[in-house]
Protein backbone atom coordinates (compact mmCIF):
# COMPACT_ATOMS: atom_id res chain seq x y z
CA UNK A 1 0.00 0.00 0.00
CA UNK A 2 1.29 3.47 -0.88
CA UNK A 3 2.02 5.59 2.18
CA UNK A 4 -0.32 8.54 2.51
CA UNK A 5 1.44 11.90 2.09
CA UNK A 6 1.57 14.39 4.95
CA UNK A 7 1.54 17.50 2.81
CA UNK A 8 0.66 17.87 -0.85
CA UNK A 9 1.09 20.57 -3.47
CA UNK A 10 -1.18 20.52 -6.51
CA UNK A 11 -0.25 22.71 -9.49
CA UNK A 12 -2.83 23.25 -12.23
CA UNK A 13 -1.23 24.44 -15.46
CA UNK A 14 -0.63 23.80 -19.15
CA UNK A 15 2.41 21.63 -18.44
CA UNK A 16 5.04 20.02 -20.65
CA UNK A 17 5.23 19.42 -23.53
CA UNK A 18 3.72 22.87 -24.14
CA UNK A 19 6.37 25.42 -25.16
CA UNK A 20 5.65 28.09 -22.58
CA UNK A 21 7.75 29.67 -19.85
CA UNK A 22 5.04 29.01 -17.29
CA UNK A 23 5.13 25.29 -18.01
CA UNK A 24 8.76 25.47 -16.94
CA UNK A 25 7.80 27.61 -13.96
CA UNK A 26 5.36 24.93 -12.78
CA UNK A 27 8.11 22.33 -13.06
CA UNK A 28 10.49 24.51 -11.05
CA UNK A 29 7.97 25.19 -8.28
CA UNK A 30 7.23 21.46 -8.12
CA UNK A 31 10.91 20.61 -7.77
CA UNK A 32 11.41 23.30 -5.12
CA UNK A 33 8.43 21.99 -3.15
CA UNK A 34 10.16 18.64 -2.65
CA UNK A 35 12.99 20.45 -0.85
CA UNK A 36 10.60 22.51 1.27
CA UNK A 37 8.66 19.86 3.17
CA UNK A 38 6.08 18.72 0.61
CA UNK A 39 6.22 14.94 0.22
CA UNK A 40 3.90 14.81 -2.80
CA UNK A 41 3.47 17.15 -5.75
CA UNK A 42 0.84 16.61 -8.42
CA UNK A 43 0.79 18.60 -11.65
CA UNK A 44 -2.70 18.49 -13.16
CA UNK A 45 -2.82 19.30 -16.84
CA UNK A 46 -4.53 18.31 -20.08
CA UNK A 47 -4.46 15.07 -22.09
CA UNK A 48 -1.87 15.12 -24.85
CA UNK A 49 -4.46 14.72 -27.59
CA UNK A 50 -6.26 17.81 -26.32
CA UNK A 51 -3.07 19.86 -26.27
CA UNK A 52 -2.24 18.76 -29.80
CA UNK A 53 -5.74 19.64 -31.03
CA UNK A 54 -5.49 23.22 -29.71
CA UNK A 55 -2.57 24.10 -31.97
CA UNK A 56 -0.34 25.04 -29.04
CA UNK A 57 3.38 24.76 -29.85
CA UNK A 58 4.66 21.52 -28.31
CA UNK A 59 8.14 20.15 -27.65
CA UNK A 60 9.08 16.74 -29.01
CA UNK A 61 7.98 14.32 -26.29
CA UNK A 62 11.37 12.61 -26.21
CA UNK A 63 12.99 15.98 -25.45
CA UNK A 64 11.10 16.62 -22.21
CA UNK A 65 13.28 16.13 -19.14
CA UNK A 66 11.93 13.76 -16.46
CA UNK A 67 10.55 15.02 -13.16
CA UNK A 68 12.04 14.03 -9.82
CA UNK A 69 10.50 11.13 -7.87
CA UNK A 70 7.63 12.52 -5.81
CA UNK A 71 6.23 14.60 -8.69
CA UNK A 72 3.27 13.04 -10.49
CA UNK A 73 1.86 14.49 -13.71
CA UNK A 74 -1.85 13.76 -14.12
CA UNK A 75 -3.83 14.27 -17.31
CA UNK A 76 -7.44 13.55 -16.30
CA UNK A 77 -9.49 11.94 -19.04
CA UNK A 78 -12.56 13.79 -20.37
CA UNK A 79 -15.95 13.05 -18.85
CA UNK A 80 -18.89 12.36 -21.16
CA UNK A 81 -19.10 11.97 -24.91
CA UNK A 82 -19.37 14.16 -28.00
CA UNK A 83 -22.59 15.77 -26.70
CA UNK A 84 -20.48 17.67 -24.13
CA UNK A 85 -17.97 19.43 -26.44
CA UNK A 86 -15.15 21.20 -24.57
CA UNK A 87 -16.72 20.79 -21.16
CA UNK A 88 -15.68 17.13 -21.09
CA UNK A 89 -12.05 18.02 -20.39
CA UNK A 90 -12.86 20.68 -17.82
CA UNK A 91 -15.14 18.21 -16.06
CA UNK A 92 -12.30 15.70 -15.90
CA UNK A 93 -9.92 18.27 -14.43
CA UNK A 94 -12.39 19.70 -11.93
CA UNK A 95 -13.53 16.25 -10.84
CA UNK A 96 -9.98 15.12 -10.12
CA UNK A 97 -9.38 18.27 -8.05
CA UNK A 98 -12.48 17.48 -5.98
CA UNK A 99 -11.08 14.01 -5.28
CA UNK A 100 -7.73 15.43 -4.17
CA UNK A 101 -9.35 18.07 -1.97
CA UNK A 102 -11.52 15.51 -0.12
CA UNK A 103 -9.06 12.67 0.53
CA UNK A 104 -7.91 14.06 3.87
CA UNK A 105 -4.42 15.20 2.86
CA UNK A 106 -3.55 18.85 3.73
CA UNK A 107 -3.15 20.43 0.30
CA UNK A 108 -1.97 23.66 -1.24
CA UNK A 109 -3.32 24.18 -4.76
CA UNK A 110 -1.59 26.62 -7.10
CA UNK A 111 -3.20 27.52 -10.41
CA UNK A 112 -1.32 29.25 -13.22
CA UNK A 113 -3.62 30.94 -15.75
CA UNK A 114 -6.93 32.19 -14.42
CA UNK A 115 -8.94 30.79 -17.30
CA UNK A 116 -9.63 27.95 -17.14
CA UNK A 117 -7.38 26.73 -14.32
CA UNK A 118 -8.31 29.07 -11.48
CA UNK A 119 -11.95 28.85 -12.54
CA UNK A 120 -11.71 25.05 -12.23
CA UNK A 121 -10.08 25.31 -8.79
CA UNK A 122 -12.77 27.68 -7.50
CA UNK A 123 -15.47 25.29 -8.67
CA UNK A 124 -13.66 22.28 -7.19
CA UNK A 125 -13.26 23.94 -3.77
CA UNK A 126 -16.97 24.78 -3.70
CA UNK A 127 -17.96 21.24 -4.62
CA UNK A 128 -15.47 19.66 -2.20
CA UNK A 129 -16.86 21.65 0.71
CA UNK A 130 -20.40 20.87 -0.36
CA UNK A 131 -19.72 17.13 -0.01
CA UNK A 132 -19.51 17.49 3.76
CA UNK A 133 -16.18 15.65 3.77
CA UNK A 134 -13.19 17.18 5.59
CA UNK A 135 -11.42 19.67 3.31
CA UNK A 136 -8.05 21.18 4.20
CA UNK A 137 -6.95 23.13 1.14
CA UNK A 138 -5.27 26.50 0.66
CA UNK A 139 -5.43 28.04 -2.80
CA UNK A 140 -3.07 30.35 -4.68
CA UNK A 141 -3.93 31.80 -8.08
CA UNK A 142 -1.16 33.21 -10.25
CA UNK A 143 -2.15 35.48 -13.12
CA UNK A 144 0.42 35.16 -15.88
CA UNK A 145 -0.74 37.90 -18.25
CA UNK A 146 -2.53 36.27 -21.15
CA UNK A 147 -5.35 35.76 -18.65
CA UNK A 148 -5.95 39.48 -19.11
CA UNK A 149 -4.75 40.17 -22.64
CA UNK A 150 -6.54 37.14 -24.09
CA UNK A 151 -9.63 36.91 -21.86
CA UNK A 152 -10.51 39.84 -19.60
CA UNK A 153 -9.40 42.55 -22.03
CA UNK A 154 -11.41 40.93 -24.82
CA UNK A 155 -14.44 40.82 -22.52
CA UNK A 156 -14.04 44.53 -21.78
CA UNK A 157 -13.67 45.40 -25.46
CA UNK A 158 -16.73 43.34 -26.41
CA UNK A 159 -18.73 44.30 -23.29
CA UNK A 160 -19.05 40.68 -22.23
CA UNK A 161 -19.50 41.47 -18.59
CA UNK A 162 -20.48 37.99 -17.42
CA UNK A 163 -17.36 36.27 -18.72
CA UNK A 164 -15.07 38.93 -17.25
CA UNK A 165 -16.88 38.75 -13.90
CA UNK A 166 -16.53 34.96 -13.90
CA UNK A 167 -12.74 35.13 -14.30
CA UNK A 168 -12.16 37.96 -11.81
CA UNK A 169 -14.53 36.56 -9.19
CA UNK A 170 -12.86 33.14 -9.39
CA UNK A 171 -9.46 34.81 -9.01
CA UNK A 172 -10.51 36.84 -5.98
CA UNK A 173 -12.15 33.78 -4.41
CA UNK A 174 -8.72 32.20 -3.94
CA UNK A 175 -6.96 32.46 -0.60
CA UNK A 176 -3.96 34.21 -2.16
CA UNK A 177 -3.76 36.14 -5.44
CA UNK A 178 -0.48 36.93 -7.19
CA UNK A 179 0.69 38.15 -10.59
CA UNK A 180 3.96 37.35 -12.36
CA UNK A 181 5.05 40.99 -12.58
CA UNK A 182 4.09 44.48 -11.50
CA UNK A 183 3.11 45.10 -15.12
CA UNK A 184 0.66 42.19 -14.99
CA UNK A 185 -0.80 43.37 -11.67
CA UNK A 186 -1.31 46.89 -13.03
CA UNK A 187 -2.89 45.49 -16.20
CA UNK A 188 -5.41 43.45 -14.21
CA UNK A 189 -6.33 46.46 -12.08
CA UNK A 190 -6.74 48.68 -15.15
CA UNK A 191 -9.04 46.22 -16.90
CA UNK A 192 -11.00 45.65 -13.67
CA UNK A 193 -11.44 49.42 -13.37
CA UNK A 194 -12.85 49.52 -16.91
CA UNK A 195 -15.41 46.89 -15.92
CA UNK A 196 -16.26 48.80 -12.74
CA UNK A 197 -16.75 52.05 -14.65
CA UNK A 198 -19.18 50.40 -17.03
CA UNK A 199 -21.11 48.19 -14.62
CA UNK A 200 -20.74 49.70 -11.14
CA UNK A 201 -18.79 46.74 -9.73
CA UNK A 202 -15.89 46.92 -7.27
CA UNK A 203 -13.28 44.64 -8.80
CA UNK A 204 -10.42 47.16 -9.14
CA UNK A 205 -10.31 48.02 -5.43
CA UNK A 206 -10.37 44.37 -4.47
CA UNK A 207 -7.64 43.53 -6.98
CA UNK A 208 -5.51 46.41 -5.75
CA UNK A 209 -5.81 45.19 -2.16
CA UNK A 210 -5.39 41.47 -2.83
CA UNK A 211 -2.86 40.98 -5.64
CA UNK A 212 0.81 40.61 -4.80
CA UNK A 213 3.73 39.87 -7.09
CA UNK A 214 5.52 36.55 -7.48
CA UNK A 215 8.08 36.50 -10.25
CA UNK A 216 8.48 33.28 -12.27
CA UNK A 217 10.60 30.54 -10.67
CA UNK A 218 13.65 29.47 -12.69
CA UNK A 219 16.06 26.59 -12.21
CA UNK A 220 19.21 28.69 -12.17
CA UNK A 221 21.42 25.61 -11.73
CA UNK A 222 20.59 24.48 -15.26
CA UNK A 223 22.23 27.60 -16.70
CA UNK A 224 25.21 28.16 -14.41
CA UNK A 225 28.72 26.74 -14.68
CA UNK A 226 28.18 25.14 -18.07
CA UNK A 227 31.22 23.12 -19.09
CA UNK A 228 32.95 24.46 -22.20
CA UNK A 229 33.15 20.97 -23.65
CA UNK A 230 29.41 20.48 -23.19
CA UNK A 231 28.62 23.76 -24.93
CA UNK A 232 30.99 23.02 -27.78
CA UNK A 233 29.48 19.56 -28.26
CA UNK A 234 25.94 20.92 -28.52
CA UNK A 235 27.01 23.64 -30.96
CA UNK A 236 28.98 21.19 -33.09
CA UNK A 237 25.93 18.90 -33.32
CA UNK A 238 24.04 21.84 -34.82
CA UNK A 239 26.84 22.97 -37.10
CA UNK A 240 27.41 26.12 -35.04
CA UNK A 241 30.45 27.75 -33.45
CA UNK A 242 30.67 29.85 -30.30
CA UNK A 243 29.93 33.55 -30.98
CA UNK A 244 29.15 32.64 -34.57
CA UNK A 245 25.40 33.18 -34.44
CA UNK A 246 22.61 35.43 -33.21
CA UNK A 247 19.93 33.49 -31.34
CA UNK A 248 16.17 33.77 -31.06
CA UNK A 249 14.67 31.04 -28.88
CA UNK A 250 10.99 31.41 -28.07
CA UNK A 251 7.53 30.86 -29.52
CA UNK A 252 7.28 31.65 -33.23
CA UNK A 253 4.73 34.41 -33.60
CA UNK A 254 4.74 37.97 -34.88
CA UNK A 255 4.17 39.24 -31.34
CA UNK A 256 7.69 38.02 -30.57
CA UNK A 257 9.11 40.28 -33.29
CA UNK A 258 10.81 37.59 -35.37
CA UNK A 259 10.02 39.44 -38.61
CA UNK A 260 11.73 42.57 -37.27
CA UNK A 261 14.72 40.49 -36.16
CA UNK A 262 15.11 38.96 -39.62
CA UNK A 263 15.06 42.41 -41.23
CA UNK A 264 17.45 43.87 -38.66
CA UNK A 265 19.85 40.95 -38.96
CA UNK A 266 19.97 41.32 -42.74
CA UNK A 267 20.71 45.05 -42.41
CA UNK A 268 23.45 44.71 -39.78
CA UNK A 269 27.02 45.10 -41.07
CA UNK A 270 28.34 43.73 -37.78
CA UNK A 271 26.37 40.52 -38.25
CA UNK A 272 27.63 39.89 -41.80
CA UNK A 273 29.78 36.96 -40.73
CA UNK A 274 27.16 35.48 -38.38
CA UNK A 275 24.18 33.18 -38.76
CA UNK A 276 20.74 33.79 -37.33
CA UNK A 277 19.34 30.80 -35.46
CA UNK A 278 15.57 30.94 -34.98
CA UNK A 279 14.68 28.20 -32.49
CA UNK A 280 11.15 27.27 -31.49
CA UNK A 281 7.72 26.36 -32.72
CA UNK A 282 4.56 28.37 -33.00
CA UNK A 283 1.45 29.29 -34.96
CA UNK A 284 3.28 31.46 -37.48
CA UNK A 285 6.29 29.26 -38.14
CA UNK A 286 5.60 28.78 -41.84
CA UNK A 287 4.89 32.46 -42.40
CA UNK A 288 8.15 33.41 -40.71
CA UNK A 289 10.08 30.85 -42.72
CA UNK A 290 8.71 32.55 -45.83
CA UNK A 291 9.84 35.94 -44.51
CA UNK A 292 13.32 34.51 -43.94
CA UNK A 293 13.44 32.92 -47.39
CA UNK A 294 12.73 36.31 -48.98
CA UNK A 295 15.43 38.05 -46.92
CA UNK A 296 18.79 39.11 -48.42
CA UNK A 297 20.32 37.08 -45.58
CA UNK A 298 18.29 33.94 -46.36
CA UNK A 299 21.39 31.78 -46.72
CA UNK A 300 22.49 32.64 -43.19
CA UNK A 301 19.18 32.00 -41.40
CA UNK A 302 18.53 28.62 -39.77
CA UNK A 303 15.28 27.42 -38.19
CA UNK A 304 15.39 24.78 -35.45
CA UNK A 305 12.09 23.27 -34.34
CA UNK A 306 13.43 20.41 -32.22
CA UNK A 307 15.54 22.07 -29.51
CA UNK A 308 15.10 20.13 -26.27
CA UNK A 309 15.44 21.23 -22.65
CA UNK A 310 18.99 19.91 -22.35
CA UNK A 311 20.24 21.83 -25.41
CA UNK A 312 18.74 25.20 -24.57
CA UNK A 313 21.33 26.44 -22.01
CA UNK A 314 24.24 25.62 -24.32
CA UNK A 315 22.66 27.38 -27.29
CA UNK A 316 22.12 30.45 -25.11
CA UNK A 317 25.66 30.38 -23.70
CA UNK A 318 27.28 30.08 -27.11
CA UNK A 319 25.52 32.89 -28.99
CA UNK A 320 27.01 36.25 -29.92
CA UNK A 321 23.71 37.91 -28.98
CA UNK A 322 20.24 36.82 -27.95
CA UNK A 323 17.46 38.92 -29.50
CA UNK A 324 13.81 39.00 -28.43
CA UNK A 325 12.22 42.11 -30.02
CA UNK A 326 8.79 41.43 -28.51
CA UNK A 327 5.98 43.83 -29.32
CA UNK A 328 2.53 44.36 -27.83
CA UNK A 329 -0.39 42.86 -29.69
CA UNK A 330 -4.08 42.79 -28.67
CA UNK A 331 -3.84 39.05 -28.06
CA UNK A 332 -0.41 38.98 -26.39
CA UNK A 333 1.95 41.16 -24.38
CA UNK A 334 5.20 39.89 -22.87
CA UNK A 335 4.31 40.03 -19.18
CA UNK A 336 7.76 39.05 -17.92
CA UNK A 337 10.23 37.31 -20.23
CA UNK A 338 11.44 34.04 -18.67
CA UNK A 339 13.70 33.18 -21.60
CA UNK A 340 15.52 36.49 -21.15
CA UNK A 341 16.39 35.60 -17.55
CA UNK A 342 17.52 32.14 -18.61
CA UNK A 343 19.80 33.70 -21.21
CA UNK A 344 21.34 36.09 -18.67
CA UNK A 345 22.07 33.14 -16.39
CA UNK A 346 23.69 31.13 -19.18
CA UNK A 347 26.14 33.87 -20.15
CA UNK A 348 27.30 34.47 -23.70
CA UNK A 349 26.67 37.64 -25.67
CA UNK A 350 24.34 40.48 -24.67
CA UNK A 351 20.56 40.41 -24.68
CA UNK A 352 18.81 42.70 -27.18
CA UNK A 353 15.14 43.28 -26.47
CA UNK A 354 12.33 45.81 -26.21
CA UNK A 355 10.88 47.39 -23.08
CA UNK A 356 7.47 45.84 -23.64
CA UNK A 357 5.15 44.78 -20.82
CA UNK A 358 7.11 43.24 -17.95
CA UNK A 359 10.40 42.77 -19.82
CA UNK A 360 12.00 45.64 -17.90
CA UNK A 361 11.38 43.76 -14.65
CA UNK A 362 13.05 40.67 -16.07
CA UNK A 363 16.21 42.30 -17.46
CA UNK A 364 16.68 45.39 -15.28
CA UNK A 365 19.50 47.51 -16.70
CA UNK A 366 21.24 44.52 -18.24
CA UNK A 367 20.04 44.45 -21.84
CA UNK A 368 20.36 46.57 -24.95
CA UNK A 369 16.89 48.05 -25.38
CA UNK A 370 15.52 48.81 -28.85
CA UNK A 371 12.18 50.40 -29.80
CA UNK A 372 9.26 48.22 -30.83
CA UNK A 373 8.81 47.64 -34.58
CA UNK A 374 12.25 49.00 -35.45
CA UNK A 375 14.47 46.65 -37.51
CA UNK A 376 16.96 49.51 -37.99
CA UNK A 377 17.47 49.73 -34.24
CA UNK A 378 18.01 45.96 -34.08
CA UNK A 379 20.66 46.28 -36.80
CA UNK A 380 22.37 49.07 -34.86
CA UNK A 381 22.29 47.00 -31.66
CA UNK A 382 23.89 44.05 -33.44
CA UNK A 383 26.55 46.39 -34.83
CA UNK A 384 27.23 47.57 -31.29
CA UNK A 385 27.51 43.99 -30.05
CA UNK A 386 30.01 43.17 -32.80
CA UNK A 387 32.17 46.16 -31.82
CA UNK A 388 31.87 45.62 -28.04
CA UNK A 389 35.26 45.26 -26.28
CA UNK A 390 35.83 41.94 -24.53
CA UNK A 391 36.08 43.66 -21.14
CA UNK A 392 32.70 45.33 -21.51
CA UNK A 393 31.07 42.13 -22.68
CA UNK A 394 32.52 40.20 -19.71
CA UNK A 395 31.35 42.87 -17.27
CA UNK A 396 27.86 42.90 -18.74
CA UNK A 397 27.72 39.12 -18.56
CA UNK A 398 28.65 39.10 -14.84
CA UNK A 399 26.19 41.84 -13.93
CA UNK A 400 23.34 40.28 -15.92
CA UNK A 401 23.87 36.92 -14.21
CA UNK A 402 23.91 38.53 -10.76
CA UNK A 403 20.59 40.24 -11.53
CA UNK A 404 19.01 37.04 -12.83
CA UNK A 405 19.91 35.00 -9.75
CA UNK A 406 17.10 36.64 -7.78
CA UNK A 407 14.64 34.51 -9.76
CA UNK A 408 16.05 31.20 -8.51
CA UNK A 409 13.22 28.76 -7.90
CA UNK A 410 14.06 28.21 -4.24
CA UNK A 411 13.98 31.91 -3.44
CA UNK A 412 10.79 32.50 -5.40
CA UNK A 413 9.10 29.49 -3.79
CA UNK A 414 10.00 30.67 -0.28
CA UNK A 415 8.72 34.19 -0.89
CA UNK A 416 5.48 32.92 -2.42
CA UNK A 417 4.74 30.35 0.29
CA UNK A 418 5.64 32.71 3.11
CA UNK A 419 2.24 34.25 2.36
CA UNK A 420 0.51 31.11 3.55
CA UNK A 421 1.65 31.19 7.16
CA UNK A 422 2.26 28.12 9.35
CA UNK A 423 0.38 25.61 7.16
CA UNK A 424 2.98 25.71 4.41
CA UNK A 425 5.85 27.71 5.80
CA UNK A 426 9.08 26.44 4.25
CA UNK A 427 12.33 25.95 6.17
CA UNK A 428 14.46 29.07 6.30
CA UNK A 429 16.42 29.75 3.13
CA UNK A 430 19.33 32.13 2.59
CA UNK A 431 17.63 34.38 0.04
CA UNK A 432 14.23 35.28 -1.28
CA UNK A 433 12.95 37.02 -4.37
CA UNK A 434 11.29 40.35 -3.64
CA UNK A 435 7.53 40.13 -3.27
CA UNK A 436 6.00 43.58 -2.84
Detailed description of the structure:
The chain has 436 residues and is α/β, with parallel strands linked by helices. It contains 17 helices and 13 strands. The protein has helices at residues 21-34, 48-54, 87-101, 114-130, 146-157, 161-172, 182-199, 203-210, 228-237, 258-267, 285-293, 312-318, 338-346, 359-363, 375-387, 390-404, 409-417, and strands at residues 8-12, 40-44, 71-74, 107-112, 137-143, 176-179, 211-213, 245-249, 275-279, 301-304, 321-324, 351-353, 368-369. The strands form two sheets. It has a seven-stranded parallel beta sheet with strand order 3-2-1-4-5-6-7, sandwiched between helices. The protein has a six-stranded parallel beta sheet with strand order 10-9-8-11-12-13, sandwiched between helices. Helix 13 (338-346) links the parallel strand 11 and strand 12 (351-353). Helix 9 (228-237) packs across helix 12. The radius of gyration is 22 Å and the shape is globular. The relative contact order is 0.12. The model is unreliable at 424-436 (pLDDT under 50).
Amino acid sequence: MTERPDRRLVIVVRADPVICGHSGEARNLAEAALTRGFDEVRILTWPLERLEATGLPLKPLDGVLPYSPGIVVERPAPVGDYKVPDGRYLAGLTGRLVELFTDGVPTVCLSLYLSPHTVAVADAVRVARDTGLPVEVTTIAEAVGSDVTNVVRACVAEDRFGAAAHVLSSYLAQDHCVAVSAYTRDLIIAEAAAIDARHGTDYARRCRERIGISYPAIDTSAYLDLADAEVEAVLASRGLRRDGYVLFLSRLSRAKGVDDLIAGFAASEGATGLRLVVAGRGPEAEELRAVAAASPAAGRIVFLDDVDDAEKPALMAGCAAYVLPSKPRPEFVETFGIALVEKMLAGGGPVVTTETGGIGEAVGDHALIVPVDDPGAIAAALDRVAAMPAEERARREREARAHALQFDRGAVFDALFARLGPLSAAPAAPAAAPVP
